[in-house]
Specification:
The complex is a heterodimer of chains A (623) and B (341). Chain A is α/β, with parallel strands linked by helices and 623 residues long. Chain A contains 20 helices and 25 strands. Chain A has three domains: 219 residues, 3-Layer(aba) Sandwich (Pyruvate-ferredoxin Oxidoreductase, domain 3), CATH 3.40.920; 187 residues, Rossmann fold (3-Layer(aba) Sandwich); 106 residues, Rossmann fold, CATH 3.40.50.920. In chain A, α4 crosses α8 and α11 packs parallel to α12. By secondary structure, chain B is α/β, with parallel strands linked by helices. Chain B has a domain of 221 residues: Rossmann fold (3-Layer(aba) Sandwich), CATH 3.40.50.970. In chain B, the strands form two sheets. Chain B has an eight-stranded mixed beta sheet, sandwiched between helices. A three-stranded antiparallel beta sheet of chain B has the order 8-9-10. In chain B, β5, α7 and β6 form a beta-alpha-beta unit. The model of chain B has no long low-confidence stretch (mean pLDDT 96). Classes of the chains: A alpha/beta (623), B alpha/beta (341). At the A-B interface, α1, β9, α9, α11 and α12 of A face β1, β2, α3, α5 and α12 of B.
């Protein structure tokens, strides 16, 4: 029997938390998909440990997935969850700090026994000692009910226990009136080859849903109505998928076969996985012996006329630095995708950070500039990957794309682009000699530059008469022969710098979101801080404050009008998941007082943190 | 493309206009000459030929070949060449390297290129010294070598390059030396014809920093007594008269040099470069403890195994036959999609 009916909510934030082996990522992902199919706007934040299976029941092993669904446009996975699903005491303990008073805790009461409580470091059972009095706690024996309903299907209790995440998913699906058919269909497809597992998961999922409806535990359930989206076809996409798809699309736009040289590394490996599955697009994926060989092979393929790409994270970017320098000297197209994570060294492999900006900008010996781009949302990875390829090919240069762990694994609805509107990328291979010797012999010079772009010709092997040698030694301007001559070296350093700087004329001007046009404070964001900053600015405006927002997708070169924009504001705030790397560059390049708002906890900014910082700068009261 | 369509060329066509800048008397000159003279005979096109190198004296080689070429960074040539050769199966890709480049900084790339069996012709010039950095010991230098960086003698046990390549699952392994153009050319020709990763160790004299390192085995006077030519299907024999001595297998599996007159031809090991098990080739590669004992040269191993780039291409073709050529619009809908009216 149903409770008192269904209540309307404009948004809800659910956080699923359990052991690494409990299937919380899968559970969260399914909840997200059914919400997306229902038409909600949504944003997700998978938050999991580096260990595949840390000791069961411990705080270290807790894996969580936060999803924000709403009936209106949202940008972030939300600051504080409305509901925490805790599959064991450790999951409760690790996440309770995120929960505001009055929010809902949905706990698997079966797991709150002595051993698990001890492993989580609880001296007493929080379900009985009164410490959760400020929350609405629902105790549900998820494990035992799951085992009970699976028994009838002949599933052993130990195997049935593994389906308890589907019970939780069923229960939360009831609580938020999610449609059940897509999940049932998904279970039968995903576990089709293991009928008993499919049966157990189906039974557990249904039992969870029915439990909500019949247990009279809940006063009501809730509904979050579809958001208003622009008409069109939508998919749910993560940053890593969007990056892989963008690279594939770019390969088609350029008519160049894609070659990915990569070495597995968290959180970038999913790009390698996705591209490896898509061989029908003519993609060669090469899992190299190390990070250096990954980029080396990509560069070798680029020399041969392919679209060379390598994907990595911080430690891998360190190792690739020398080859990036070679690519800068060879002036060959190459795309390096760095999915940033917490550093230095191994750091926080599964947690997000933006601290590779200075490395991307300056992390090579010698004067070695290259273009740097950063996607701002998971779906933006698609467009940024294409743009990176365009610049790499047009300017014959390596390009670094700075994604991050949050974008890589986070998901959002994405209105599919009209592929016909994407501009063709012209490889413009060299076809004939481009220089005449004194005796009139036509020859090919690999370092004759296009006067407009300063790009050199790209001449993959195979064309008679264009045989040439390139290398890491300094080359004579024009002929490309080895040259140790000082004046020539200085000219080449300038040319390489000017080529990259000139790209500023080939990218969009920076747009400023300044609603009233008279804000004194400008927030500058880059990469994934876009979401929290945009949402924070919205919030303070709703409170009558004035703040402008500009977001940089191009970090090198900057948009040509950046200096003018910065000069228009008396205060500049740069929120970053690092110690202030962009703010430092802005200060040194433009002599402006760009202040840094810094956070390095492996998680994105909360909107509230941006809101407080703006409020403080504007001399108002914090909300 | 038929063979007849390939233009007739000479050494001059394969030589670039760049001045060769190795030290006068360097063994690299004779290797360069051997390669430049061999190329016109191989039935390949200059525009489809790439010479790729890392860093070191040997690594300047590509600048002197009038082909496509890349002088890359230290030790990485096999990795870069892997990307090139797998994505461009139409190219003939040569990797020119030295003992430091291949076995120290680039050891990892070398062993993986070999075990993957990428179609590369890898020529490793072994002079047992670092030349370009002016005379430090190398990973093939003998123990106790006194150099600028080891004034009290080096401590490291050297690599045996042929043993290393065999241990790395190489399908083609050979050894030659810079004093014998005809033998070098035979080895290079065989390497180029091999469909997979071919590794050739070229014993090369550095007359400035390690002069005479191989003199005891490659010197004109001693060569016939000190080099043991390996010929597939023939008993392993050597000597000034051609066959006074030979290599026999002991009952314990080890190899030893024996007097043919005493033991008879039938007691000798018949060389089999196509043996599937590389064990015997490995033992053979270690017959000499250093370049002062009779040393086998020639092809140690030449077996067939699927070529890596070819297999990569086949996977693509297979996927395209099963799924069609790949449609980006479909790709973007590969998860669930929904439509907002």
């Amino acid at each position: 029997m149903r409770g008192q009916g269904t209540e309307q909510l404009d948004q809800v934030i659910v956080r699923f938390a359990g052991d690494s082996g409990d299937g919380m990522q899968l559970t969260g992902d399914r909840f997200t998909t059914s919400s997306a199919l229902l038409g909600n706007d949504m944003s997700t934040f998978p938050d999991f440990p580096a260990e595949i299976r840390a000791p069961a029941g411990t705080i270290n092993g807790v894996s969580a997935f936060q999803v924000h669904i709403s009936d209106h446009d949202i940008l972030t996975p939300g600051d504080s969850p409305n509901v925490l699903v805790a599959m064991n005491p450790a999951a409760l303990k690790a996440n309770l700090d995120l929960m505001d008073k009055g929010t809902i805790l949905l706990v698997n009461s079966d797991a709150f026994e002595e051993r698990n409580l001890a492993k989580a470091g609880y001296d007493s059972n929080p379900l009985t000692d009164g410490s959760l009095g400020a929350y609405t706690v629902y105790e549900v024996p998820m494990t035992s009910i799951t085992q009970e309903v699976c028994k009838e299907a002949g599933v052993k209790p130990r195997d049935a226990e593994r389906s308890k995440n589907f019970f939780a998913l069923g229960l939360v699906s009831w609580l938020y009136t999610r449609p059940i058919d897509p999940t049932l269909a998904w279970i039968s497809e995903r576990f089709g080859s293991k009928p008993q597992v499919a049966e157990a998961n189906t039974r557990a999922f249904r039992a969870g849903f029915d439990f909500g409806e019949t247990a009279e535990l809940f006063e009501s359930n809730y509904e979050v109505r579809p958001a208003t989206f622009e008409p069109g076809e939508y998919v749910q996409v993560t940053g890593n998928s969007a990056t892989a798809w963008g690279l594939i699309a770019a390969s088609r736009l350029a008519g160049l076969p894609l070659f990915l040289g990569s070495y597995p590394i968290t959180p970038a490996s999913d790009i390698l996985h996705e591209l490896s599955r898509r061989k029908e697009f003519g993609i060669r994926t090469f899992q190299a012996e190390d990070e250096i060989a990954g980029i080396g092979a990509a560069l070798g393929a680029a020399f041969g006329g392919a679209l060379g790409v390598t994907t990595t994270s911080g430690p891998g970017l360190d190792l690739k630095s020398e080859t990036i320098g070679l690519a800068i000297n060879l002036e060959l197209p190459l795309v390096i995708v760095d999915v940033q994570r917490g550093g230095p060294s191994t750091g926080l492999p599964t947690k997000t950070e933006q601290a590779d900006l200075l490395h991307a900008m300056y992390g090579r010996h010698g004067e070695a500039p290259l273009p740097i781009l950063a996607p701002q949302t998971p779906s933006d990875c698609f467009a940024v990957a294409i743009e990176a390829v365009r610049l790499a090919v047009k300017y014959r240069t390596p390009v670094i794309v700075l994604s991050d762990g949050y974008l890589a694994n986070g998901a959002e609805p994405w209105k599919l682009p009209d592929l016909d509107t994407l501009a063709v990328i012209e490889p413009d291979f060299a076809a004939e000699p481009n220089h005449t010797e004194e005796d009139g012999t036509p020859v090919f010079w690999p370092y004759v530059r296009d006067p407009e772009t300063l790009a050199r010709p790209w001449a993959p092997p195979g064309i008679p008469g264009l045989e040439h040698r390139i290398g890491g030694l300094e080359k004579a301007d024009g002929s490309g022969n080895v040259s140790y001559e000082g004046v020539n070296h200085e000219r080449m350093v300038h040319l390489r710098r000017d080529k990259i700087a000139g790209i500023a004329g080939d990218i969009p001007l920076l747009e400023v979101n300044d609603e009233t046009g008279d804000a004194q404070l400008l927030l500058v964001s880059w990469g994934s801080t876009y979401a929290a900053v945009a949402a924070g600015v919205k919030r303070v405006r709703a409170r009558g404050m004035k703040a402008a927002h500009a977001h940089l997708r191009y970090l090198n070169p900057f948009p040509a009008n950046l200096g003018d924009v910065l000069g228009r504001y008396t205060q500049i705030l740069v929120p970053e998941i690092n110690l202030g790397q962009l703010s430092r560059i802005l200060r040194s390049d433009f002599l402006v007082d760009a202040q840094s708002l810094s956070k390095m906890q492996g998680v994105p900014f909360r909107v509230g943190e941006i809101e407080s910082a703006i409020t403080m700068l504007l001399g108002g009261k914090s909300s | 493309m038929t063979l007849t369509a390939i233009p007739v060329t000479s050494r001059k066509d394969w030589s670039s206009d760049q001045e060769v800048r190795w030290c006068p008397g360097c063994g690299d000159y004779s290797i360069l000459a051997a390669v430049q003279m061999l190329m016109p005979e191989l039935g390949v096109r200059r525009e489809n030929t790439v010479f790729l190198s890392g860093i070191g004296c040997a690594a300047r080689f590509p600048y002197y070949m009038n082909t496509y070429g890349m002088h890359s960074i230290h030790g990485r040539a096999p990795a870069i060449a892997t990307g090139l050769a797998t994505s461009r199966p139409d190219l003939d890709v040569w990797v020119i390297s030295g003992d430091g480049d291949s076995l120290s900084i680039g050891g990892n790339h070398l062993i993986h290129a070999l075990r993957r069996n990428v179609r590369l012709n890898i020529l490793m010039f072994n002079n047992q010294i670092y030349g370009l950095t002016k005379g430090q010991y190398s990973p093939t230098s003998e123990v106790a070598k006194v150099t600028k960086s080891t004034p009290f003698g080096s401590l490291d046990t050297p690599f045996n390059p042929v043993s290393l390549a065999l241990g790395a699952e190489a399908t083609f392994v050979a050894r030659t030396h810079d004093m014998d153009r005809a033998h070098m050319q035979e080895m290079f020709r065989r390497a180029q014809a091999h469909n997979g990763a071919a590794f050739v160790e070229v014993l090369q004299n550095c007359n400035v920093f390690n002069d005479g390192a191989f003199e005891k085995i490659t010197g004109k006077e001693v060569r016939s007594d000190m080099l043991i030519p390996l010929r597939h299907g023939e008993p392993i024999v050597f000597g000034a008269e051609g066959s006074e001595r030979g290599v026999a297998q002991r009952p314990d599996g080890g190899l030893e040099i024996v007097d043919v007159a005493e033991f008879g031809m039938e007691a000798l090991l018949v060389h089999d470069e196509k043996r599937d098990d590389p064990g015997l080739a490995f033992t053979l590669s270690r017959l000499a403890r250093g370049p002062y004992e009779p040393t086998p040269i020639g092809v140690f191993r030449a077996v067939e195994r699927p070529e890596y780039g070819n297999q990569m291409s086949e996977q693509i073709i297979g996927a395209q036959e099963r799924r069609g050529l790949g449609d980006v619009a479909e790709l973007l809908r590969s998860g669930s999609s929904w439509t907002v009216e």
